[in-house]
Design brief:
By secondary structure, this protein is an alpha+beta fold. The chain is globular, with a radius of gyration of 23 Å. The N and C termini lie far apart (about 60 Å).
Length: about 300
């Protein structure tokens, strides 16, 4: 029989987790994903397919067919991350649901999702994606985004669902660009009222503070310099993520609840159990996932030291 948290059940915590998870998930929509509520063990793999770029042909001599190629990509589910919190009997008696939400739900969701994004963005290296644009954060503006749009078009990246993922300093510079702040150009003033950058030159813009430096040495023009990653522009097939929840534990005196974010399908598993010798309730948020590179549909934004 599963233990309860002093009148607060795991389904209630799951609902709070779902609300927090939904707030954390928009950036995941920038990539190709394969999530479900199915269970899996670490080391299993899932396969997906990404399409190679195509070009239109001249129809003057008829509609000759062009081969369409898709490439199978295998994503190994080799990451198993968790966040576990411990609550004493006294803490539960005094705090109840408010205490659990404040000290578990938000940190748990952020920790697990952030770990997944860290592993994904660690793939944005010079070895995986050679295309790059050097620009300082203070100078980053709408014209630079237009250049990136042209660069992706040159790479035959479809114009739909393009994403621009940048550090806060770059986002702030973009938000302050006169072209962005001219509310009449977009029919709204969100850039000023809410610091919300609208879609710019076909890109959905995501501000993300944990982009890894991925520092590497480069020698344009013969002079070596360290280049640090500041963001990137990409199509959804550049980076791939797949995730599953761990297999349900058997013969275990605890409760298990799956939480699936409807927009992306990202599924966290929640567990709680009571340890009598500790006089404490433990709650875990956990998921299994894997990351991989897809097509060459990404251009890095870097700055030189």
């Amino acid at each position: 029989m599963a233990n309860t948290l002093g009148g607060v059940n795991l389904a209630q915590i799951a609902q709070q987790t779902l609300e927090t998870l939904s707030a954390e998930m928009p950036i995941v929509s920038a990539f190709t994903t394969d999530f479900s509520s199915d269970v899996a063990d670490v080391g299993e793999s899932v396969s997906t397919r990404v399409a190679t770029a195509v070009s239109a042909g001249d129809a003057a001599s008829g509609y000759s067919a062009t081969d369409v190629t898709s490439t199978a990509k295998t994503i190994t589910l080799n990451k198993h991350k968790h966040f576990t919190a411990k609550f004493t009997d006294l803490e539960i008696a005094k705090g109840g649901m408010d205490m659990l939400e404040r000290t578990f739900v938000r940190p748990a969701v952020h920790a697990v999702v952030n770990a997944m994004m860290d592993d994904l963005l660690a793939l944005v290296t010079n070895a995986n994606f050679a295309e790059e644009k050097v620009v300082a954060g203070s100078a980053f503006g709408a014209d630079d985004v237009a250049d990136l749009a042209g660069d992706l078009t040159t790479l035959n990246v479809p114009k739909s669902d393009r994403a621009l993922v940048i550090l806060p300093s770059y986002y702030a510079s973009l938000a302050s660009d006169n072209a962005i702040q001219a509310a009449y150009a977009y029919g709204g003033g969100g850039a000023i009222r809410d610091n919300a950058v609208p879609k710019v030159h076909g890109f959905n813009v995501y501000e993300y503070s944990d982009i890894p430096e991925n520092q590497y040495s480069h020698n344009p023009g013969g002079g070596a310099a360290n280049h640090n990653l500041q963001g990137f522009a990409c199509g959804p097939e550049a980076l791939l993520i797949a995730g599953r929840q761990p297999a349900m534990p058997e013969n275990w005196a605890g409760a298990v609840e799956a939480v699936q974010e409807p927009g992306t399908g990202v599924t966290l598993q929640l567990r709680n159990w009571y340890e009598g010798k500790d006089g404490a309730q433990y709650i875990t948020a956990t998921m299994i996932y894997g990351v991989a590179t897809g097509t060459n549909s990404l251009k890095k934004i870097i700055v030189a030291d």
